[in-house]
Amino acid sequence: MAAREARRAALRVGAASLIPSRAAASAAATFASSSSASSSPSQLASRFSFSSRPLRFLHHHHHPPMPPPPFLVRSPPPRAALLQPDGGLLVDVVVPSAERASKLAEAQHLPQLSISRIDLEWVHVVSEGWASPLRGFMRQSEYLQSLHFNCLRLQDGSIVNMSVPIVLAIDDAQKESFGPSSAITLVGPSGNLVAILRNIETYKHNKEERIARTWGTTAPGLPYVEEAITQAGNWLVGGDLEVLEPIKYNDGLDHYRLSPAELRKEFERRNADAVFAFQLRNPVHNGHALLMTDTRRRLLEMGFKNPVLLLHPLGGYTKADDVPLAWRMKQHDKVLGEGVLDPETTVLAIFPSPMHYAGPTEVQWHAKARINAGADFYIVGRDPAGMGHPTEKRDLYHPDHGKMVLSMAPGLERLNILPFRVAAYDKSQRKMAFFDPSRAEDFIFISGTKMRNFAKNGENPPDGFMCPGGWQVLVDYYKSLAAEESKAAKEHLVV
Amino acid sequence: MAAREARRAALRVGAASLIPSRAAASAAATFASSSSASSSPSQLASRFSFSSRPLRFLHHHHHPPMPPPPFLVRSPPPRAALLQPDGGLLVDVVVPSAERASKLAEAQHLPQLSISRIDLEWVHVVSEGWASPLRGFMRQSEYLQSLHFNCLRLQDGSIVNMSVPIVLAIDDAQKESFGPSSAITLVGPSGNLVAILRNIETYKHNKEERIARTWGTTAPGLPYVEEAITQAGNWLVGGDLEVLEPIKYNDGLDHYRLSPAELRKEFERRNADAVFAFQLRNPVHNGHALLMTDTRRRLLEMGFKNPVLLLHPLGGYTKADDVPLAWRMKQHDKVLGEGVLDPETTVLAIFPSPMHYAGPTEVQWHAKARINAGADFYIVGRDPAGMGHPTEKRDLYHPDHGKMVLSMAPGLERLNILPFRVAAYDKSQRKMAFFDPSRAEDFIFISGTKMRNFAKNGENPPDGFMCPGGWQVLVDYYKSLAAEESKAAKEHLVV
């Protein structure tokens, strides 16, 4: 335990610097250079990751020497102990079953507010403690801290990360309908009573400012904005949640929706002494798998006895052209079933948050929520939570900003950030491998778009790109999509 | 000293809370309620300030009890000791005169970059340590921290506030012209060699993202954006400054431009045991003066023996319809000369920063810079650094957000924030007085626009609104403006 803390402290020194991105780069470079496939400089490689920058670029003579690179540290294996949740206690605001009847009776007599599917996803997120120590929708002081500082200050003066505002929008009529009541009842999309929101505070919803400060643009066409903000009301209502029963979606996937408490139990049951989390919203190809397998190998080399992977697809709102959750889960199942990832050391579960596509701002939320689930290592890729600019021909965010911001974010000091090493299809080995810039001509980069086009057109990707069962799921998905489209087109003709 | 620290610690408890705005409101309410002119609830008053909210609104039963209100604390007078600068040491990057000749010789052989008047103002700001511990234009890691977190993390893990990016934009050709040199010479608007920028780092200038995250809007018409960003290059260059000689403007006002070190000396010379700063970019009317005088009275009541006012007009770039610096300084001189403010306990100096008009983001910079000059109390008003929305008929920022954000800002915990009490013209007393909502009909609010219109039209404001000499300066300014405009119109006719 002490050794583990000491190592974490050593890692923190890197972040605790006016030049933390350099420290992170140093750690990353070391991470990369201890592997087989690295690493002379290359424009192509630096396009993807700073993990292959050579060390000699990292020492400016005016900067103090870097701390020892974390992945060269050898120390005795630590004892198993999961990272504490933010604020010390995992929030759980689901009403205990003994109190359910009386709370439900109370809820029936409070002013009611109908909420959307995305609002419900946020209730779910808060209810299980992913956003600990937040206990409800943000009041104004929390909202302002999130918007301006990406973090919240607690009573004891400590800081927790909180980069994305978790807020509930209402319009004038809804605000009026609350009357003088200090509590309201939230009614879900299917008409059931979901939660009581107590000690409410209403305040102005300045959408333009919220969008600008969260996304760094106000260009039209941001998916979450169009889905959940543009048409929303001009007020926000904050308060403390009491959720009447655990949130379920009855879509056949609820058993994958493990709460942070359930995940912690599972990690303990498996005697994990390190938990490394991988956030994704895409099918897993063998490059991802290589990265995860290799991360485990290195953690073992560092002295951990049983590092466990949290394979953690995002399950809330995603944009229309992402592969739907149900198909992704089928694909992930195949990846485990066909042994590409080891089921013994992998926990597959769904992260219930909706997706903002807010790049460097959102990646902090993705990482912070995993601390609350007990993860102490977080793998971050190129342009996390990014997308194309909605109106210009460029990426919305600089591809390196996500990992840089993550490595510097207040409240995430305890989390070890592992920058993604870029994998590509190695024609010489006919498999996915870490990109080696010294023989760049051997590699093919297969983007998400290219992958989707293969599957749509019924073409096969190169052998070894993805396990056959996983690939078949994708082919089936795009076939079903084509069938639906053709059916819709026919119906349109009939009308 | 110990007593002072204890009192500061007590004040910090208020800020160190998930609900700091309430704590700040509590402190403010107490501040207000210990005065004669307060304070039953009123819509009119709450429009201006949360300092007159009654205490009973501030205690939600789910929140822990508030810390003791700071302005009721009575303790023995502290010993004089100015607040430490951010980072512990006041930055001074002006080259010592003994080294000037050799640095100048070196500067003549480096690649040269012409900088604008605003760039020069930032060089000035950094050179004297207003932005301590920043030693130059921001590199990317500092820029990203400023943009996302409004603060920088130092080597020792501590946090300093830094809400406004201090950056230098260059275009492709300028970037090319640097070649492989790690240092460049900055050339001022008048052609003189200003500074060497060392260990430079160039990185992308994503203007849209910078504007959105700094101003919370990307609407066209933001003054600083139009003046300094829209036409600027697509790269930023960061590095450490060595400024070849102290920055002077030779406009007859340089003697007012006291550096943080000079201000600290002046406060020590006067044996100040508290320094309270008032940032402004407008003429001082008697309402301002009342506020400043009253603040001193309360600080005396608290046990301070010699609180000194730093009357600190902003002297860098301001928008076209603000009163120019030279006229404002004339006006401020009259206010002191006619005894409205006491010259014995007031230091009048110019703050050399340019103005962003970025509301809650910028007010943090205004406060942080004054810590570096030794201030430990900061007076904040309604809608600080705010302006009208450039394209919509509303204020750009919520008028209370400035003081709320300031009271919660990371790195400003040491500074005591004093929310502005609203003063208005009291017809019954024929003078400016703190607004008393119980007899609202006695008061007239005279906005900046109304004041300017009086002066423009040669009308007199009500007796007691401003000292006669100060008012005359304003009348003269608008006369000179009218004369210039008529001259310009005539010249236009001749052409």
UniProtKB/TrEMBL annotation, chains A, B:
Q: Which family does it belong to?
A: Belongs to the sulfate adenylyltransferase family.
Q: What protein name is recorded for this chain?
A: sulfate adenylyltransferase
Source species of the chain = Adiantum capillus-veneris
Enzyme Commission designation:
2.7.7.4
GO MF term set: adenylylsulfate kinase activity; ATP binding; sulfate adenylyltransferase (ATP) activity
Q: Which GO terms describe its cellular component?
A: chloroplast
Plastid as a keyword of this entry, yes or no, is: yes
Q: Which residues does the UniProt record annotate as the domain ATP-sulfurylase PUA-like? A: 84-245
- Output the superkingdom of the source species: Eukaryota
The EC class name is transferase
Q: Which Gene3D superfamilies does this entry report, sorted A to Z?
A: HUPs (3.40.50.620), Sulfate adenylyltransferase (3.10.400.10)
Q: What is the lineage of its organism?
A: Eukaryota, Viridiplantae, Streptophyta, Embryophyta, Tracheophyta
Matches recorded under InterPro entries: ATP-Sase_PUA-like_dom (IPR025980), PUA-like_sf (IPR015947), Rossmann-like_a/b/a_fold (IPR014729), Sulfurylase_cat_dom (IPR024951), Sulphate_adenylyltransferase (IPR002650)
List each copy of the Sulphate adenylyltransferase catalytic domain by range: 255-476
Can you supply a Gene Ontology BP term from the record? sulfate assimilation
State the UniProt keywords alphabetically. ATP-binding, Chloroplast, Nucleotide-binding, Nucleotidyltransferase, Plastid, Transferase, Transit peptide
Q: Does the keyword DNA-binding apply?
A: no
